[in-house]
Automatic annotation (TrEMBL):
Cofactor: Mg(2+); Ni(2+)
Top-rank lineage group of the source organism: Bacteria
Gene transcribed to yield this protein: cca
UniProt cross-references to InterPro entries, sorted A to Z: CCA_bact, HD/PDEase_dom, HD_domain, NT_sf, PolA_pol_head_dom, PolyA_RNA-bd, tRNA_CCA-adding_enzyme
Binding site for Mg(2+): E23, D25
Role according to the record: Catalyzes the addition and repair of the essential 3'-terminal CCA sequence in tRNAs without using a nucleic acid template. Adds these three nucleotides in the order of C, C, and A to the tRNA nucleotide-73, using CTP and ATP as substrates and producing inorganic pyrophosphate. tRNA 3'-terminal CCA addition is required both for tRNA processing and repair. Also involved in tRNA surveillance by mediating tandem CCA addition to generate a CCACCA at the 3' terminus of unstable tRNAs. While stable tRNAs receive only 3'-terminal CCA, unstable tRNAs are marked with CCACCA and rapidly degraded.
Domain remark in the UniProt entry: Comprises two domains: an N-terminal domain containing the nucleotidyltransferase activity and a C-terminal HD domain associated with both phosphodiesterase and phosphatase activities.
Record-listed CTP binding positions: G10, R13, R93, R139, R142
A single MF term (Gene Ontology): phosphatase activity
Name of the featured protein: Multifunctional CCA protein
E.C. code: 2.7.7.72, 3.1.3.-, 3.1.4.-
Amino acid sequence: MSYTTYLVGGAVRDRLLGYPHDEHDWVVVGATPEQLLDAGYTPVGQDFPVFLHPKTGEEYALARTERKSGVGYGGFTFHTSPDVTLEQDLQRRDLTINAMAMDDQGQLIDPYGGQADLQARILRHVAPAFVEDPLRVLRVARFAARYHHLGFQVAAETLSLMRELARSGELQALNAERIWKEISRALMERNPEIFVQTLRDCGALVELLPEVDRLFGVPQPEQHHPEVDTGIHQLLVLQQAARLELPLAARWACLLHDLGKGLTPEEHWPKHHGHEKKGLAAVKAVNQRVKAPRECQELALLVCEYHTHCHRALELRPETLLKLFKAFDIYRRPERFEQFLGACQADAQGRTGLEDRPYPQADYLRKAAEHARAVSVQPLLEQGLQGAELGKALEKSRLHAVAAFKTD
Ligand SMILES: Nc1ccn([C@@H]2O[C@H](COP(=O)(O)OP(=O)(O)OP(=O)(O)O)[C@@H](O)[C@H]2O)c(=O)n1
Ligand SMILES: [Mg+2]
């Protein structure tokens, strides 16, 4: 018996959109696993009907239907058989724009109105079975972030399904790896703030990142923050982070830098004295809950603690500058310090009306750091210094170098 292969999912969607896409997913209709094994495909997992092409390595999935059989991921049963149709396979998918297929003649198969929704710029679920996978809440928010600049919006009825999922508590059953994968991809999209905003719109933000959610409604002094609301500031900072094309760790740090402001007692509003240190515990909690990679965790903690130092860079004493450099280990980790400067710039410019204000602090710190790094240990070694003494002398030379830079 012969089988038919179709291109599906993101590749079809992005081809129709004229959007770059470099991964191809295929669906195979009318085949048994044995047929694919005989043709040289390798199975991806034990009980999962997905195979890798012998030459291209791309994913080929047997057409399947899915049923949810329990709470959480893994609570799925698949049904594959050669008589599962393409339409059935497409129906189990998340969004209409993701539920189109293309045959080898370039002919589009679009039973659920995906093309119309692409044209209307709508992210709409295919069927009520959307709710069987809570990860889709994050996926839709991520697509909203990715295609925002093209005018895409989440359909009202899809948003209500997302709200239902958020309210059901099912998001708690998602494992950290899947959540992080979505968050990290979303942060790297062109409008990462739309991801956070969409999660908030459907009540998922408080489920997934309650520490971020609680910033909404918390005021800041209007003098420095014309947008006033800390949650809005948060979104604006992410927008700037994308505009500055910051790498993932810096964007993650941007998202978490002000968590301390959510912990200020109301009677102190709109001031947030000491929010930098106060936020550290919250940053740590989020870091661990989503199992962010080490680099992201570290930078988020450092940016939380030191972003105000960066804004005040020009007023800092040489001693304080050196302490900052030490905290960042700028001598061995120059790229991490650069990411810190980027995140702080996004923080300074992520304020209504201040998006284009200059941020001379970054260059100032960059130069000061260069002077500290340029201090050579060689002359000190030649003086015969060792151990703690050597360390102290090196510190002193650096202090001189930074002080000299400051008076310049
Ligand atoms: N929770 C999920 C994950 C995936 N899919 C379906 O599987 C396809 C492929 O999934 P994936 O590669 O994760 O996403 P893409 O849509 O290809 O988008 P991208 O890779 O660009 O993120 C999707 O288009 C969608 O039809 C789904 O319905 N529900
Ligand atoms: Mg894909």
